[in-house]
Structures are given as C-alpha cells and as structure tokens.
Amino acid sequence: MTNPLTLTKQTLFEILSQRFITQEKKLSQIPNPALLHDAPKAAKKIAQAIRENKKIALVGDYDVDGVASTAIMVDFFRQIPYPIEAIIPNRFKDGYGISPSVLERIDVDLLITVDNGISAIEAAEICKKRGIELIISDHHTPSHELPHAYAIVNPKLPTCEYPFSEICGAQVAWLLLALVKKELNLNIDMRAFLDILAIAIIADIMPLININRTLVKEGLKVLMNSSRPSSIIIRDFINKSTLSSEDIAFQIAPRINAAGRLEDASIALEFFTATDTNKAYKQFELLNKLNDLRKDTEAQTTKDAIEYVKSNNNQKVIVACGENWHEGVVGIVAARLVDKFGLPSIVLSIENGVAKGSARSVGDVDIYKLIKANEHLLTKFGGHKMAAGLGLEVANIKLFSDAINQSALKIDKKDFIPKDNIIGMLETSSIDLELLNIFDNFEPFGEANPRPTFLIKDAQIVEVKTFGKEKNHSKIVIRQNPHERKTLELILFKQVLEIPQDRKLTCSYSVNKNEWNNKISIQLLITKLYYGAAE
User: Which structural domain, as residue segments, surrounds residue 338?
Assistant: First the structure.
C-alpha cells in the first residue's frame, strides 16, 4: 500500500470543499413538484375524491422509507381532516408492495401507493376490474411494462421532467401532497414533515447532494425542535445537542426497520403517527426489543451465510441460500457479505420450495441491471443500482447463480473495487476539536458525501482493551510514529483485535464527535483493518 498524502487542516478543508462546487440550494429552490410525471393529474384526483367524500386507502412499504411515506400521508390527511385507511403489507403474509392478498382487505374508491407500485402489474388489473382508481407514487426503477393506473408519479420514468431523480419514496409522497395542498387551498405547513422526511432520505441511502442535502439539513433542525411525539422520543434517545445523519443511520433507522423485518411495520407506523409521547414511547420500546432480536438473528444468519460462501465456489457475484434463514434479515446479511468478501451479494431464504431474498452491491456494479439480465429465471424482482429484492423457485437457484456470474464477466474489473474513500493521512497533532469543527461545515455525511476516512500505516500498538456487555469491541491505543509520545485511541466495533507479532496496525478510520454528559470529545472509529485482524 502506497502512502497517501499527509494532509494539513487547510488542505483537508479544500479537498472537502471540492465536493460542493455548485451552490447549496435553499428550501425555496426545490424544483416544482408539478414537474413530476403525472403529479398534477394525481393531485387533482385526490382533491376531487376528498371533495366527493370518496373512500381512500393508502398502501405503503415495510422499510423506513415506506413507513415514513405512509406516516407523512397519514399526518397530512389528519390535518385536513379526512379519514384514510393506511395499510403497510406484512413482509411474511403479503410480500412486497400492493399485492393481490393486500387488495382482498381493501374496499375503496381510490387507492394510493407510496414507495411501491411501479411493478404492480397484476394488482393494477385487479383494481381496474373492481373499479378502484389507482395512483402509484414510487421511486424504484420501472421495467419496460408499467401497471395500468390512473396516474404514475415516479421520477425514474423516462418521461419525467423532474430535474433530480435520486429521491426516495417519502419525497415523492411529500411533493405530491404539496400539490394536493395547493388544489384544496389548505393551510398545512409542509416544512413540519421534514423531520420524518430526513429520516427516510438517510435510511434509504439517497445521495446527500442537491435537494437531498438541503432537505436532510433542514429536516435534522426540524427534528431537534418538533413537537411531534416520535421526534421528542428520538431526541431523548440520542441525547445530543445536535443530531447528525449518522445518528439517524446507525441509531434510529435500524430500530424503525426492525418492525417490518421481524414482525409488522405497523408498529413503526404507530410510533411515527403517535399523538402523545406515552404512545410513542411504548412503540419505541417495542422497536428496541425487536431490534435486539434482529441483531441476534442477523448474527447467526451471517455466520451461516459465511460458511455457505466458503464451501461453495461463487465467482464474481455471491449467491448464498439457506432453509428457513429469516427473510427479514437477508438484506442486512447480504450487506455483511459485501463487507467481508468485497463482492456483490445475494442472500436467499428458502421456505416451501420458494426462495426470497435481497441483493447488495459494491463499487460501481449495478446489481439491478445484473438481475434484470436474468429475470427469466425469477418470479419477481425490483430495486435500484445498489440494492434489490427478488424471488425465484428453488429449482432455479443454481441456474440463476451461474447465469448472473456469466453476466458479471462482462463488467469492468475496476467496477468491483470497493470504495473505501481514504483521502489521506493525518498527523497525530492535527486530530483535535478544531478538526471536528472543519467536519461540521460538510455535514450531513452519507451516500455521495461520505465521512472522510484516513489511513494509519504500521502504527505501534501500545495496548488493546475489550469493552461492551459481551466484551466484543476493542479499544486500541497506538503511536502513529515511534518517536511520538502522544498516543491515539481507536475504537473497533464488533471485533476483538488479536495483536500481531510485530505489534503493528494498518487501518482506515474516521474522526467522529462523541457527546456524553454535555462534553464533546473526539472518537476515532476504525472502518477497515488491512492486516493483523482477527477473523
């Protein structure tokens, strides 16, 4: 490994500034929602249904984006006020999106989807036969065949003129509601939804550039001051003077997701839409318990999946499967395999002769395109460049694995290189509170604006201590250079570092703000070990 540049604080500031050449947008500069394909038509239809007192239902999705989209809609209709039936499909009983089994429970005049529906061909036909008018609002990549719906609002449609297409389902729903507000001349503050919207953008790993950056920045401010019961609980739980995108990504999103992964996403929806803090607190306690269960389930399944990969000769794309692996955690397990093996990974749960699973990608590999090239072997699939969901008959797993690996041979080897974003090395003396202040200028960090990582090479290990309830995390005290007196403490989560014989450490790390009892300190978190790590 060659030594990257040793950075001063000034050069670091200049490098990070280059990420934002265009001027930051204000909320008032968010493009007109009417530019979204079919959005004005959909808004008019929703307004008409309200005026005519029609029965309206909403179908969301069980991930954070789907729950957040549904919660924003529920809150908006509550403020009109107008009754609306909100349904989030159950992952295990209904499967993804607006399925025929979900439609069996619905008897309405108008049905609106949020964060799903772009692939609901069969469901759209059922709606047509039953005289239900269907409005689809989604952000997932459309295939060549579109559902027959009254309106399809999706920034990824080739005919859509909205100037920024990388938005999540909750943003599509929020923009559509802005037009409904206009149609009905309502006095509803659309800024008040930004707390939930920011959570959705971060959790759905949208690029934190352009309008997404603006919405997350403003949304985190709203979250800090909102009187929404769920936001009050989130603030109390994080317990910091300011909230960062990473607080949401690592502390809140997994808890919201746990409901849909292990039980039912309605638990998370009731948290977001709770009208008092007691109810919100009870729901959050449930989410906490489910998240603990999710961690245990995920750890065991990851272990099984790693063993499967080691005993099966996969090449460019990992396809791992197991009987009764928990369907709710296969997406996270796929992400763990990507981290461990540095390859795109598909993890499938087999039950009653059917396999359902999730895919996660790496580098610049478009997993959606790879899966689409082999869709003839699948019963269903959907997603985007970095993540997808799919289903197939068990008999086709081997065929699919071979076929997708054949397709992957056509991809440039460089596309498989994981992005570790190391931007340089830092002198020990440069790691101080002033450095944290520099980073504050470039928040929020996330997709397309990653928190910078730095290299430590051949540092001398002074001491390794374990911590945590199960003593499975490491605190590593090092000296970057032999002549230095000053040491640095690095944190390695979910791993006990075995000290190599030469007592040397090479790793990448990020510099983070740690806030405890109103005191701010620096926390250095290891992002990747390059050698000397325990398996």
Answer: 312-416
